[in-house]
Each structure stands twice: as C-alpha cells, then as structure tokens.
Amino acid sequence: QVQLVESGGGSVQAGGSLRLSCAASGSILTINAMAWHRQAPGKLRELVAVITNDGSTNYADSVKGRFTISRDNVKNTVYLQMNSLKPEDTAVYYCNAAVVDYIRLRPYDYWGQGTQVTVSS
Length: 121
Description:
Layout: E1 2-7, E2 10-13, E3 18-26, E4 28-39, E5 46-51, E6 57-59, E7 67-72, E8 77-82, E9 91-101, E10 107-111, E11 115-120
Parallel strand pairs: 2-11
Antiparallel strand pairs: 1-3, 3-8, 4-5, 4-9, 5-6, 7-8, 9-10, 9-11
C-alpha cells in the first residue's frame, strides 16, 4: 500500500507565494513521474505540472514562468513552488505519482487527498 500526503496549502493574496509538498510512503520500489493537478469549483481537474524521475518537467501554459515543480527522490517527495499567484489559481491541488510498488511490480497511479489553495484579489 502507498500513501501520498500533501501539505502547504492555504490562503494568500494575489501576487503572493505558496509551496506545496507531497510525500509518498509505503511499499515503494520506485516512482516514475510525479505531478500536480488542480480542480476549481465547477471545472474539470487539470494537469498543472509534471516531473519525470530524471528531472524533466512540463507545465500548463497558465502557470509557466510562475510555478516550479521539483522532487527529492531520496525523500519520495514532490514540491510545487507557486509564485505570483492569481485568483484564478484558486483550486484544490492534488498530487499524483506513478509508483511501482512491491505488490504490483508495475506502475500504478496514486493520488493524494488534495489541499486547498485560495488566492484573494
């Protein structure tokens, strides 16, 4: 069994910054890609940023230049540094990891419980 636990959400004024963390734990053999998604009220969940296990990254156009995704492979943790936040960034943010665990021995998508980010104007 694998768990993803997020932290770092909260409320901030427009132009401010927040840093999200997501730590994976459990029967982990290796983790492939790790990503952050978000879902605003009344909208579909969208991919915000993704990072592969060799450090390659990709971002949604709406966050390029403002958000930075990174990971610590020793700690099995992925981070999302969010700068110059805008009210439209308000959403529940979810982390996601493609984990190879000792039971399945193949990649399986795990999700965190979500953390609220609220940006006020």
